[in-house]
């Protein structure tokens, strides 16, 4: 089973200027690309972007104002400790399961099985109400 560690960073607010990148959308995409490639070199895998509410104090009165922040979520596999092999359970280390004993002998004799008796229709059934 793999274990992960996570990193959450604020998404860029401005695009990044570069030669040949003219539109706002392209500049913003370039800024995201730079962030993702920088973290990718360190083993971080991009998972998703989330918009989360943040309560802030506003002004002298200390009123609460809610704003929303765009966050980028990354994860990477936590490396196993050097020289430590994954622990496998040996059969003798496995927890003991409850054992079932022999079935109990039924007391008495079972009734004989005969033909099925027709069951009278229910009082609220449509066939009885129509008659």
Describe the structure.
With 131 residues, this protein is an alpha+beta fold. The chain has a domain at 4-77. The chain has 2 helices and 3 strands. The longest helix is centred in the N-terminal third of the chain and has 18 residues, at 24-41. The protein is elongated, with a radius of gyration of 34 Å.
Question: What descriptors fit this protein?
Answer:
131 residues; alpha+beta; three-stranded antiparallel beta sheet; 2 helices
Helix-strand blueprint:
Blueprint: E1 4-10, H1 24-41, E2 45-58, E3 63-77, H2 126-130
Give the low-pLDDT segments: none
Find the structural class using helix and strand composition.
alpha+beta
The dominant shape is: elongated
Assess the beta-strand content as a share of residues. Answer: 25-35%
Order of strands, widest sheet = 1-3-2
Number of helices: 2
Q: In angstroms, what separates the terminal alpha carbons?
A: 68 Å
Q: Could you give the count of β-strands? A: 3
Radius of gyration: 34 Å
Largest sheet: 3 strands, antiparallel
Q: Overall pLDDT, averaged?
A: 78
Name the helicity range.
10-25%
Helix-strand string: EHEEH
